[in-house]
């Protein structure tokens, strides 16, 4: 019974924490990820203004903005770091990627007002050792032809803002204005693609799929579940695997039920024989031991479910209390991007865990109950 309590409680608590991590990850990453994008299969998207107007008129689309994206190398006085350089129009992109919501220093409009300026993630700025007002040298995969030869294109950019979402983007992402991106990358009259904002994040896959059917050949529409889908599928698979592994604790408890009932059958052989001689059927004897095993399991699963739900609901205050009692920080935000354990209790998970645990317990009772039903009264009572 205690095994059932521990197994069910740990399953509910751990899966709730994983739900919290998944939701936190989704919220943070999708802060800077558009609901959908439209790009050209080859090369840049030329003459994008008419296409942007056409997409904005589609049902379910509330904003469209151009962007240019390219990998680059950022260098300070002493350090080099690789980065994803994204050029956006802050005014057009405000409804899609609103930098002002995540900026911890500076202003998004400064990207347009200050020529050749850049906004960096706080972790990237920390690695480069720069602050707002400093300059970084950016090198892009474009060539500049000079009388002295061919050189990679480089330019000094002024840091005008720092943003933070508490995810990997803080370490690799850098934003410049669309005009700066066009000059750096030589994108004249062309962009990498168009960013889309739909009425609802969950409806984005359906809306983008409908847009794909109306787009001309050579254009590809992707929603966030496709561009970031591998990450969230990995998180979902991890949750399933952790659930299966923790279910083994319940399986061990179910094995204990088997051993308990087998010993009970051995001790009650005489009583079973007496019942059989008084007219009890084998199926009746079998149902007695099945009910005995299920009663043990039901008590254990019920107590474990209540304990697990309480832990899932109050894991954050318990973590804070533990940290204050120990005088140490269990989760350093600079390392884990979080300061406490997030937890989201899903009643569907609780129901699945309870049903799976009771199913394992029911299977565990079948063999001992079958043994009890096979007791031969004549052999047991021969010398009584």
TrEMBL record:
Protein encoded by which gene: lolC
UniProt keyword Nucleotide-binding present: no
Domain ABC3 transporter permease C-terminal: 244-376
Protein's name according to its UniProt entry: Multidrug ABC transporter substrate-binding protein
Any Gene Ontology biological process: lipoprotein transport
Domain annotation MacB-like periplasmic core: ranges: 1-213
Organism of origin: Parahalioglobus pacificus
Broad class of the protein's primary localization: membrane
One Pfam family of this chain: MacB_PCD
Transmembrane segments: 240-266, 287-316, 344-367
Compartments reported by the entry: Cell membrane
Family: Belongs to the ABC-4 integral membrane protein family. LolC/E subfamily.
Entry keywords, A to Z: Cell membrane, Membrane, Transmembrane, Transmembrane helix, Transport
Topology term for the membrane: Multi-pass membrane protein
Annotated Gene Ontology cellular component terms: plasma membrane protein complex
Listed InterPro entries: ABC3_permease_C, Lipoprotein-release_system, LolCE_TM, MacB_PCD
